Amino acid sequence: MSTTVESQSHAHGDGHHDHPEYLQHHFDNPAQQESAAKLGMWVFLATEILMFSGLFLAYFIVRSQYPEMVLSAHEQLDWKLGSVNTVVLIFSSLTMALAVRAVQLNNRKQASLMLIITILCACAFMVIKYIEYSSKIEHGLLPGIAYAEHTIVEGTHYAQEGWWGGPQLFFGIYFMMTGLHGLHVVIGIGLLVWLLVKNNRGRFSSEYFTPVENVGLYWHLVDLIWIFLFPLLYLVK
Amino acid sequence: MSHEYVKGYVKGQPAKPAHEGHHVMPLKTYLAVFGALMVLTVVTVLVSQAGLGSASLAVAMLVALIKAGFVVGYFMHLKYDVRFYSFVFFSTILFVGIFFLMTFADINTRDAMSAEWGNKRMKLDAQANVPPKPKKIEARSSGAGEIKAPEPAGAK
User: Fold this and answer.
1) Domain range summary for chain B, segments of one domain joined by +
2) Domain ranges, residue A91
3) What pLDDT is recorded for position A76?
4) What distances in angstroms separate CA A108 from CA A103, A111, A113, A205, A207, one per listed residue?
5) What pLDDT digit, counting tens, does each position of B76-126 carry?
6) The domain that contains A111 carries what CATH number?
7) A97: distance to nearest CA of chain B, Å?
8) Which pLDDT score, from 0 to 100, does residue A44 have?
9) Are A38 and B3 a contacting pair at CB < 8 A?
10) Count of the separate structural domains present in chain A
């Protein structure tokens, strides 16, 4: 029975079948496919939030145990560069939202433009991040054996006095949080380029734009995490 | 290329054509939300420099929460989208809250635990004051052979 169905109506790729190209076989209709995809995306975002919450918790523990250390260590971070990055990232969130809107309105050119601006903003964010990181690493603030307060005696690494509760803890958390966030930005750039290519090929329309919407959700989450990272790391008072 | 492919059901209702049911927000709303986020970013920076002391963190977090609300509600469309996505999102926040609450309930009560042992402050790391041996309990167990709970005030 299944073989007859196979041979009769499931010869795909010819476009003769009575469902749109974007609709996967296992869904009855586009709306069902969309709600499945978006629910999946929201569940993924939930796991992302839970993953970052562990790092935020680590930050709050260190801060509650060593308030003076965090207060003095954060002076090493440049709040001006952090602010510029905040503006860049929120602006890219706006252009991402406008890209989704353009696709919804079948405006392919505008959608491409908005995606390109979003990608450029993401790259600008990473360039600023690179400037920040390189100066921190130059100052010997990278945790572990690269940390400036470390000494090496006969091939063994010893932490100098004052390591416990020292600024290394703060910079460990700084590099982990912004590093994981930066990794998300880099992945986001890849996803945005993929969207741009698909959009230029005309794969999206007001009927089907779920990938644009889902990547948008991801991109906004990256923005959301930065909204909390920025005041906690750069503006401690 | 309009496909009126409406076979099957979505959430118990017969399926609608693909282009129906999508909420398109006006451009003005997006720009207004962006403006609000910019203003709140400036507020965050100003608050940190205002010298509010210990209230500074709470204010910064409040501003960040408002910003997050704008991003989630409008940019992420949660306000206009299927309610179940909101359920997923807010239950995540609930569990983050439980995670934080449990951990801080632990950390913030360690002082009380170690005070019983004659320790004023116990830090989390290795070089901090390790609680000394509980002498009182030792003395009691050698004397009476059992640990007695302290008598409640006014019992005798």
Assistant:
1) 23-81, 82-147
2) 27-142+164-234
3) 85
4) 6, 5, 9, 8, 13
5) 999 988 899 999 999 999 999 999 999 998 888 776 665 555 555 544 444
6) 1.20.120.80
7) 6
8) 97
9) no
10) 1
